[in-house]
Amino acid sequence: MIHDQARYVENGQYEPLLSEKGTSEVDVGGDDSPLPDDLTRDSVELPALSEPELARHYTRLSQMNWSIDSGPYPLGSCTMKYNPKFTEEVAADPKGAVHPDRSARSVQGSLGLLHGLQEYLARIGGMDAVTLQPPAGAAGEFAGILVAKAYHEANGEDRDEVIIPASAHGTNFASAAMAGYDVVELPSAEDGRVDVEALEAAVGDDTAALMLTNPNTVGLFERDIERIAETVHDAGGLLYYDGANLNALLGRARPGDMGFDIMHYNVHKTFATPHGGGGPGAGPVGVVDELAEFLPAPRVRERSSGSGYELFDPERSVGKVHGFQGNWLVLVKAYAYIARLGDEGLLDASAKAVLNANYLGSQVEFDIPYGPFHHEFAATAGEKDAADVAKRMLDYGVHPPTTKWPEMVPEAMLTEPTEIETKKSLDDLAAAFNAAAGDDEETLADAPSRTTARRIDQVSAARNPRLSWQALDGDE
Amino acid sequence: MTRERGSPYAPHAEGETAAMLDAVGVDDEEALFDIPEGVRFDGEFGIEPRSEQALRRELTALLGRNDDLTEFMGRGHYDHYVPSIVDNLSQRAEFLTSYTQYQPEITQGFLQALFEYQSMLVELTGLPVANCSMYDSATALAEAARLADRVRQASGTRVFVPEFLRSGKRGVLDNYLAGTEMTVETYPMDDGNVDVEALAELVDDETAMVYAENPTVRGSIEERLAEIGELASENDALFCLGTDLVALALLEEPASVGADVVVGEAGVLGLPNAYGMGLGLFATREEYLRQVPGRLVGVSEDAADRRAYTLTLQTREQHIRRERATSNICTNQAWVALRAAIHLAWLGPSELVDLAEDCVRDAAALAERLDALVGLKAPVHDRHHFREFVVRCDQPAAAIAGDLETEGYAVHVVGEHLLQVCITDANAHKADELVAAFEGVL
Q1: Is B191 left (phi over 0), alpha (psi -120 to 50) or beta?
Q2: Which of B63, B275, B330 has its CB closest to that of A138?
Q3: Which residue in chain A has the smallest CA separation from B132?
């Protein structure tokens, strides 16, 4: 079960930089230039390599990179599930490769697909209207909070606070602050859920919204959601749903039915579009009817004649959160994934995601302080350093879980296997957990030893930032 | 064992599920859902599952409803030929299906590729710090203004942008600044370029940032950038320059004209035409390093004393500093940055400069040919142009664009009698046909 990675060592490095393989500097301007010299730069120096050299370079780099196709990737709250291969082909269809300023009548296919995705997402979330513009989950949060702000302002209300549980994703805090809100942090109750009494004390005339993840970041369903919704609504605030953990609920509960007014969907999590090593993603936003007129512009709708689609600007739109229409290629993949699964597949995805998490939880020899959990669990490494245990897990051939977060669990190892792992794969994962837990402190501190690189000194990287190959001159 | 029906990507066989349920101690999966009755949903979305084959046919047919037009469009979203090697290598699953590099020991490959991307931006901009992506040029501009807000001297809150600016960029900028005290104002343009004298009248010590584009949204090349940089600097304002990866290879180096921040579109390389999907580039000076939004890859050493790469300066980021972060960005455009890096490296300096020079030559040649037609004047601005230019037409522009569309060509309408035309290596071979089509519809 060990998934070994490639390691190429040459002149004391794992793989030379493009710049070290060969660059060339060319002069710019001069007699042959189509521009006068005062409008051009003097020269450009870049890598100058043959295509075969590049093919080897990037192939080697890929072999030194972990991915969901390499093995398990149980990062809690990140939902790393398998990315179907055929969705790539659909997204690459040259028929969809159009300019964003094309007339609506000439891109009926693209608009039809986007309209279809709006519909699917609305049904899955229990929402009335959806925008596809935000290019990532955090951009969706920001768009959603702008919608909340516009709604309150339209009602003549001046509310300046957003309430966020301490365990929420950092993006919630950052997005609310970007929109100009003061953040009120809500402590968790002893059972790991929202402290409803603390919430009741915190809400008031200043509350614009409560941002909530459900199930929350230790996998617990907020059972008091109806009371939470009532509390926030009674105070005149809106309820925002962070879609990061939507995979755990597919087909079993919908944010709209729970009382949420605004939500974002992480299509690169729930709907299996590739994360691409950090993006692109897409963060569509759904809202209830009375907020639809504030959504970012433009949106897609069916023409009133009933034939075909058109773009339109919602009446009191907050405007734009992306220069054009968002991350099209990602949206195509999400549509294809949802259509492939249908009701039956979506329902099964959440069933198996929750089963897998519970099964894995039952096999690891760590304490899991909070439960019963859904799709992810926060185990604690106890006396051990969770980061060290994680590094040692790399030696056992698996990607470790998210570590040291959320902070409510000491030495947290937030684990989310998703529905795609087999029982055998989960048994292997549990074995890696348990073996790492059994290793002595010295071994843990020295880990990893079987990976491409040994333990990397992240402190010195931050203390002495070298962020380009130009900054390496004189180093060696 | 037979696989259960349901998600085609959940591999459970019936016996396995039973064993796992048994180990957990429940009768079925439903027992694991801790959801109150009042908010339970019955699972009926009304979405019919399809086989892969049927769905592929369906989607091919759906996208086939797009008209097959030859596009001569730009205005911030450009179509350059993407070499096969970009698709082939970037689609290697180890890149495509990986996550953010939180465990650097097993993600050296992607980290190095992003480090190389940052380095190529440093070379092209002349600025020492480049991040490994924003969503697009509009959000990069908006993040630059937020950076100006953080590093400004005590007073300034005014952000100046050109009168001619894409509405999408302006809209994003307004939204990103809504939670600050910053205000956005426009300065006038003169014959398509910055009216430097008018700008000088406007910029004062209340100014936090001056933004200019090279080339401009109308495709003209700015001739007095250093003076604009000087104006900003005299007033302690940041000079933010908007541009793109291809233009950077040829036009004045941003650092040499005093740019403090360079933003713009890096997806002009590596990304095919993708309905507005982009890759925001962001580079700045060393002194603003700790105020930079987005991810940065840095060099360090591992326990074997070998050079190794890691995400760094994460204390700026939202997962650590939360509401005090330099930006809310988390998921970014890393894979698109990988594609741009491969494309840049494939071109190398000579071919990149050739590509950029062709953007000037082809635009000039096409403008000259359109200008020769009765009823058209091109380019409207007596400037050097990069890829695109504005055409004045005697007849209403919308009618001409509509007729061209019927003939199979797409151009922009930018005014009652103004069209905008963009030429790149992707459509240059159709220039003759475009000219003939124009002639036919006039």
Answers
A1: left
A2: B330
A3: A278
Lookup result for tokens 């897409």:
A282
Task: From residue A475, give the alpha-carbon distance in Å to each of A117, B15, B259.
Answer: 51, 58, 28
What residues of A are in contact with residue B346 (Cβ under 8 Å)?
51, 54
Residues of chain A found within 8 Å of residue B352, distances taken between Cβ atoms: 44, 46
pTM of the predicted structure, to 2 decimals: 0.98
Q: Do B34 and A223 lie within an 8 Å CB cutoff? A: yes
pLDDT, tens only, B280-334: 999 999 999 999 999 999 999 999 999 999 999 999 999 989 999 999 999 999 9
* Joined tokens for residue B66: 């797009």
Q: Does A264 touch chain B (CB under 8 A)?
A: no
What ipTM is given for this predicted complex?
A: 0.98
Contact assignment for B275 to A471 by CB distance below 8 Å: no
CB spacing of B98 vs A468 below 8 angstroms: no
What's the rounded Cα separation, in Å, for the pair A270 and A107? 27
B10 Cα to chain A: minimum distance (Å): 5
Nearest to A362 among B24, B39, B135 (CB): B24
Nearest to A107 by CA among B360, B356, B313, B69: B69
Note if the bond before A448 is cis, omega within 30 degrees: yes
Which residues in chain A touch residue B73, judged by CB atoms under 8 angstroms apart?
99, 101-102
Q: Which structure tokens are listed for A458?
A: 């992240």
Q: What is the pLDDT of residues B78-97, one digit of tens each?
A: 999 999 999 999 999 999 99
Cβ-Cβ contacts under 8 Å for B65 (sequence gap 6 or more): A108, A109, A112
Out of A33, A84, A98, whose CB is closest to B9?
Answer: A84
d(CA B228, CA B200): 8
The dihedral formed by the CA atoms of A356, A359, A364 and A367, expressed in degrees to the nearest 10 = 100
HEC assignment per residue over chain B: CCECCCCCCCCCEHHHHHHHHHHHCCCCHHHHCCCCHHHCCCCCCCCCCCCHHHHHHHHHHHHCCECCCEECCCCCCCCCCCCHHHHHHHCCHHHHCCCCCCCHHHCHHHHHHHHHHHHHHHHHHCCCEECCCECCHHHHHHHHHHHHHHHCCCCCCEEEEECCCCHHHHHHHHHHHCCCCCEEEEECEECCEECHHHHHHHCCCCEEEEEEECCCCCCECCCCHHHHHHHHHHCCCEEEEEEEHHHHCCECCHHHHCCCEEEEECCCCCCCCCCCCCCEEEEECHHHHHHCCCCCEEEEEECCCCEEEEECCHHHCHHHHHHHCCCCCCCCCHHHHHHHHHHHHHHHHHHHHHHHHHHHHHHHHHHHHHHCCCCEECCCCCCCECCEEEEEECCCHHHHHHHHHHHCEECEEEECCEEEEECCCCCHHHHHHHHHHHHHHC
